[in-house]
Structures are given as structure tokens and as C-alpha cells.
Design brief:
four-stranded parallel β-sheet, SIS_dom, Rossmann fold, single chain, GlmS/AgaS_SIS, 2 domains, 10 helices, repeat, alpha/beta, isomerase activity, about 40% helix
Length: about 300
């Protein structure tokens, strides 16, 4: 069995461990009112996008997310948060070096002995969420879970929703789908981007992602029978009907057509938390890979960390 199967299934426990860890590392995380930049590469960048949306929505302060190589060097921030599983990614190390002594930096990292830890002012180590698979799943979501706990969110409820997601049947058979588009709104735009990346990485599958409100401004032209539109979080009025008119399948944590996909663990909480829905999308990506006789632990052209010469 691929490592990624066990890593996906372990996410509820990892998120609970993140909740226990949060009070002990709170001093290294953003304070209310601080102007914060959050950076990463690939999956970590998408988690940065999600956190930035959540922190601003919570009224905690202006928060921007950047791909590490695209950080605006002339802009001032009170704190930098860097998310990096390996702690060896070239763009993250270059940025930490460039900003050293200028902006206080905290790294959320899987390897506590990595180079990123030495370059940052503080570190939050998550070795219990580190992974053997090249394709990231639990480290990224655990980093976001910890940041959500620091915003005051209840990770107990989130982890319970995740328990549903790791066991629920997939909402649609991947073998019958030729293309998928993931949609999000607000903070879940980052989750949609991550879900699409998982399909591209694990299964070399045609997958796109857009803000849900922008989808009908062009990208909906791709929708057709045999293709899938998957929304994470809130959806705009009329979107399911517009997708249905294209002949594409539509999946949302509340409905799949007229059928419930996931039911929250607590009465009255439906749909489930979008991070739990992301678990379902991760499982969909892995199922796509195995249906194509691909190894989701070792996708082509990819390594666990991008280290540039």
C-alpha cells in the first residue's frame, strides 16, 4: 500500500496533535493586529493562501500570501510565516536569508534539523506530520490546522469532520471522469488550488481551480459530460444549475446532484468543514493515480523537495 494512503488517513490525529501543540508555540505566531506575510511553495503556498483568508476574515490583521520566490522585497511586514515541509526548498531558504534581521520570521517545518530552522528567528516543528510520500497531504493540512487553532477555532469539531472524510465513499467514480475543476470562495480558494494540484501531481490528470464566482467568466466553457466540477466551501447561487446545464457532474460537500455526499458529525452542521472535504479530494487524486497504474508516492518529474543548483 502506498504511504500516502496511511498519511491521508492519519490527518484527524495529526490535527488533534496540532491543537495540543498550539498553546506552547503561540508566542512564535502572529499577534492580533500584526501585518503578516505567509509564504511557501506549491502545496505550502496554497495553505498560506487559506490561512491569509481566514486570518483577515477573523479580524486579526492584514495578511498576504506569496509564493516564496515572488515576495515583494520592498514591502514591510511585522512578521513572516514560512511553511516548508522539508525545510530545504531553495526559494524559501533564499527568502529567509534575504529577510534575516529585517522581518521576524517563523517557519512551520516537518524536519526540525533542517536549514530553514537555522535561518529563521523561530520555528514550529511538526515532525509527527512529516511524510514519506513525495505528494504532500498531512503536513500541509496540519500546518493549516495549527494556524486555525491559533485563530481560536475548534479543532475538535474539525478533526471529527475529518474522521468522516477518511471513511466516506468517494462521491464519484474517478474512472468515469476525464477532467476536474475545483472551486472555492474566500479562504477555500487555496484549498481548491491544492485539490487540483493533488490530481496533477499524483495522477498526471487534467485539473484546474478557480474562485467559484469567477468560474462562469470563462472557465465553465470546459465543463462537459464526463467532466467534474467540485466545490469546496460556500457556493454561489445558481452554480449547481449552471454546471448541470453543461452535462458535467457536480460535487459539493452538501450535495451531489440531490444526494448528500458528507454529513457533518454534529446535527445542524452541514456541509462539513472544507478542510475535511479536501481529504476527500486527496483520496480522489490517489484513486485516480491507482486507476492509471501510477505510484502516488513517487510522481513523475517530482522530488520531495525542490533544491535548485
Amino acid at each position: 500500500m502506498a504511504f500516502v494512503h496511511a498519511e491521508i488517513a492519519s490527518q484527524p490525529d495529526c490535527w488533534r496533535e496540532a491543537a495540543r501543540l498550539t498553546p506552547t508555540v503561540a508566542a512564535h505566531l502572529p499577534r492580533p493586529g500584526e501585518r503578516v506575510a505567509v509564504v511557501g511553495c506549491g502545496t505550502s503556498w496554497f495553505m498560506a493562501m487559506a490561512y491569509a483568508g481566514l486570518r483577515e476574515a477573523a479580524g486579526q490583521g492584514e495578511t498576504d500570501a506569496f509564493q516564496a520566490s515572488e515576495f515583494p522585497a520592498g514591502r514591510h511586514y511585522d512578521r513572516l510565516i514560512a511553511i516548508t515541509r522539508s525545510g530545504t526548498t531553495t526559494e524559501v531558504l533564499d527568502l529567509l536569508s534575504a529577510l534575516r534581521g529585517r522581518i521576524p520570521a517563523t517557519v512551520l517545518v516537518g524536519d526540525p534539523d533542517s536549514a530553514a530552522v537555522a535561518l529563521a528567528d523561530a520555528s514550529v516543528a511538526l515532525p509527527f506530520a512529516d511524510e514519506r510520500s513525495v505528494v504532500q497531504t498531512r503536513f500541509a493540512t496540519t500546518a493549516l490546522a495549527l494556524l486555525r487553532a491559533h485563530l481560536g477555532e475548534d479543532l475538535g469539531r474539525l478533526a471529527a469532520d475529518a474522521e468522516v472524510a477518511v471513511r466516506a465513499p468517494l462521491p464519484i467514480d474517478p474512472a468515469g471522469i476525464g477532467q476536474v475543476t475545483f472551486l472555492g470562495r474566500g479562504w477555500t480558494v487555496g484549498l481548491a488550488q491544492e485539490a487540483a494540484l493533488k490530481c496533477r501531481e499524483a495522477a498526471t490528470f487534467w485539473a484546474e481551480a478557480y474562485p467559484a464566482m469567477d468560474y462562469r467568466h470563462g472557465p465553465i466553457s470546459v465543463a462537459a459530460p464526463g467532466r467534474l466540477v467540485w466545490a469546496l466551501g460556500e457556493i454561489p447561487d445558481g452554480l449547481p444549475e449552471d454546471v448541470a446545464a453543461t452535462g458535467a457532474a457536480f460535487v459539493h460537500s452538501r450535495t451531489h446532484g440531490c444526494r448528500t455526499v458528507l454529513t457533518s458529525w454534529a446535527a445542524g452542521r452541514n456541509p462539513v468543514d472544507p478542510m475535511a472535504d479536501l481529504i476527500l479530494a486527496q483520496r480522489f487524486a490517489v484513486a485516480l493515480a491507482t486507476s492509471r497504474d501510477l505510484d502516488p508516492d513517487a510522481p513523475r518529474h517530482l522530488t520531495r523537495s525542490v533544491v535548485l543548483a
